[in-house]
Amino acid sequence: MGLIDALLAAYAYLVANFDEFLGLLAEHLALVLVSVTLAIMIAIPMGVLATRNERAKSIVMSFGNVSQTIPTLAIIALVFPILGLGFLPALVGLFAYALLPILTNTVAGLENVDESTVEAARGMGMTENQILRQIQLPLAVPVIFAGIRTSAVLNVGTAYLAFFIGGGGLGVWVISGISLFNTPQLLAGAIPGALLAIGLDSLFGFIEGRLSGESMPEQSPAAG
Q1: What is the pTM for the complete model shown?
Q2: What is the DSSP string of 84-148?
Q3: pLDDT tens, 123-160?
Q4: FRET partner for 106 with CA separation of 20 to 30 A, picked from 27, 59, 145, 179?
């Protein structure tokens, strides 16, 4: 089967099973968005804490490294006796996998803010919390969002593993297609996943651009 024939067969399979596809896509998207959102809510505060205290930084970064090095399937296996099969254990595995890029980029972004700018803000009487909110975080937005975009793209691919624990998603078609040597089914699940990764990366890039434009200080304290 040539490439064009395979793509046409995959398209025909998708059209013939479009309702099932929408359900699997919704599950896949939910796994990715919820896991990345939870990772953002946890990793950014942890990153801020890490920049305020060296001991906390050592603990936080060690935690992030461990969460990234343990395979997602291993995390799923560990939580399976507690959470059982389905969406939730898959979500826990994806959440753990999404933490490190956001955490490391938050730390890097905050630490790379020009120290002279921070000192100038202190000289103007700004508190540490004001400096964080008004100076450091706005300037660190591009670096932080690079981590968020990395986590989102990685989790689109990792979410295919949810199939093994009944978590749904496009992995149902991809892994079943591999097992059954059904190339149209395999491609009908894999190609939308690749497009989803591109789409999410573009979406977060757009949000990054809006936040950078809206939250960037109009004038550096050093200038003023």
Answers
A1: 0.85
A2: -SSHHHHHHHHHHHHHHHHHHHHHHHHHTS-HHHHHHHHHTT--HHHHIIIIIHHHHHHHHHHHH
A3: 888 888 888 888 888 889 999 999 999 999 999 999 99
A4: 27
pLDDT digits (tens, 9 = 90+) for 170-212: 999 999 999 999 999 999 999 999 999 999 999 988 888 887 7
For residue 218, the tally of other CB atoms under 10 A from its CB is 4
CATH topology of domain 30-160+197-223: MetI-like fold (1.10.3720)
Taking the chain, what is the end-to-end CA distance rounded to the nearest angstrom? 67
Do 186 and 177 form a contact (C-beta atoms < 8 A)? yes
Token pair of 137 as six digits:
């975080």
Q: Where are the domains of the chain?
A: 30-160+197-223
